Every structure is written in C-alpha cells, then in structure tokens.
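I'm stuck. Protein, please.
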Amino acid sequence: METRIALIGIIVEDEVGISPTNDLLHEYGHYIVGRMGIPYSKKGVNIISVVIDAPENIISALSGKLGRISGISVKTMYAKTKAQ
C-alpha cells in the first residue's frame, strides 16, 4: 500500500489533553517515524511534532481523532511526494 510522509503539529494548551494524546500516539506508534516534545513553560503550553509514514487514510484518521481531544490544537502537513 502506498504511504505518505506527514508532519503532525500538536499544541497542548490544557493538561486534560495530555493523556488521551499520548494514548493515541501509542496506538499509531508503528507508523510514527519520530516524535519530539517541547515544553514551553513561559506560555504554559507543550508542543509536540510527530513525523508519520502511513497510508493517507491512517494519517487522516489519527489527525481527526487528535483534533477531537479537548485542550489541544492539531495541524497536519503532507510531503509533496509519496513515500517509496
């Protein structure tokens, strides 16, 4: 199956969103290439970037599920080329 590379940017604005976010990322872990979390205590947020290589429907499903979590904001950016 053809896959895409995407970057999912997550901003955690409320701690209530941390646990469900981590649970979802763990569930989709076999598609995740890398993950970086940055606490930005000055502004009271945490920023997570996730690189994923998966079929487009999987990326969309993960992004949609993350977007429904209270206390976080999510944006997804796709690479122009498909993964080989």
Observations:
- The mean pLDDT is 94.
- The first helix runs from residue 18 to 27.
- The first strand starts at residue 3 and ends at 12.
